[in-house]
Design a protein that fits this description.
It contains 12 helices and 16 strands. It is α/β, with parallel strands linked by helices. α5 crosses α6 (131-142).
Length: 333
């Protein structure tokens, strides 16, 4: 284990952090409840590893590690195994690096490992303005796929700025109704629900807009709260994904993002070269030789000092963040 002095950390919008604190009962989540999963910082005790004191790093704490060690990244120091962080490239600032970990690993797992997106395929991303959604757009575009993104209308500029080819405002009417009325041609190869809807409608109606050999990837499902309607939606989703086709189930493949934590994937998030505004990115053995205008890092919505962390959670829970919410443990950063 290595001791890391945390500089900035992020509140992961759309991730499991505050949802776990607010949804699961005490006997399941345990106390104290560690807060925070992503971080960037500096090593202060390398503990005879390949790292040195003073190394600038970024990484994550998995849910399992948070629970067993009773640690979270919303603290001045954390002890981490070397599998949970990598050195921060000099072209990436501490604030930018704080938003890479869990979000990039989730998006990579969904787009590359599960969906196995290929060039010229069309990928539909629901919840595209979430941090996971924005990262998924970047990764899909780096693989030369076409991206159709859905978010609220006020976030259209943000979503297009990271590479989305087409945009659908899901506040106009339920997204599955929009897609049924205006089906894509050809149908989507991949649907990625980046927010983890409990409502199964996008999946149950997917034969109208998802290709027969396509795949529906969910970053959930996760109820918004413990209310009756949300729990009923979760039950409907479980039934929908569990019912075989021969009993009338949805004739489309469904899978969920899991097992995102991997040293190899974390290594893959490092920017290997940066010259001006052009970058080369390597994703676990898939070298993407393409230029991308602007930063590869995710937009930052808000930067807060440690004393204002409650404000960060309030904004996160409002679903109005446009990018990452970063908390500076060290206000000098």
């Amino acid at each position: 284990m290595v001791l890391v002095l945390v500089s900035p950390k992020t509140d992961e919008d759309g991730s499991s952090g505050y949802k776990i604190m607010g949804f699961f009962p005490d006997f399941l989540r345990g106390r104290p409840i560690p807060s925070g999963m992503d971080l960037s910082g500096v090593i202060v005790d390398s503990n005879d590893t390949e790292y040195s004191n003073g190394d600038q790093v970024y990484g994550f704490m998995s849910l399992g590690l948070c629970k067993t060690t009773k640690q979270g990244t919303l603290s001045e120091y954390v002890r981490l195994p070397t599998t949970h962080f990598v050195r921060r490239p000099p072209t990436v600032t501490p604030l930018e690096a704080a938003g890479i970990g869990t979000v990039a690993l989730t998006a990579y797992t969904a787009i590359v490992e599960l969906a196995q997106v290929e060039a010229e395929q069309t990928v539909f991303i629901y919840g595209a303005s979430s941090s996971v959604g924005l990262a998924a757009i970047r990764i899909a575009k780096s693989l030369d796929a076409k991206v159709v993104a859905s978010a609220s209308g006020r976030n259209e500029t943000l979503v297009r700025s990271v590479g989305a080819d087409e945009f659908i405002d899901y506040t106009i009417q339920p997204i599955h109704e929009i897609l049924i009325t205006n089906p894509p041609s050809p149908k989507f190869s991949v649907i990625f629900d980046a927010v983890g809807l409990a409502d199964p409608s996008l999946y149950t109606h997917s034969p109208a807009y998802l290709a027969p050999n396509g795949i529906f990837v969910s970053n959930g499902p996760f109820p918004k709260d413990a209310s009756g309607p949300e729990l009923w939606n979760l039950v409907r989703t479980i039934v929908a994904i569990s019912t075989p086709q021969w009993l009338g189930g949805v004739p489309r493949r469904w899978t969920v993002v899991n097992d995102i934590y991997s040293k190899a994937k974390l290594d893959a998030t490092q920017v290997l070269a940066a010259q001006g505004r052009h970058y080369v990115l390597v994703w676990v053995g898939i070298k993407v030789d393409r230029t991308m205008s602007g930063s590869l890092n995710l937009p930052i919505d808000t930067v807060l000092d440690f004393k204002d962390v409650i404000e960060g959670y309030e904004k996160q829970m409002s679903k109005r963040a446009r990018g990452k919410i970063v908390v500076r443990i060290d206000s000098s950063i």
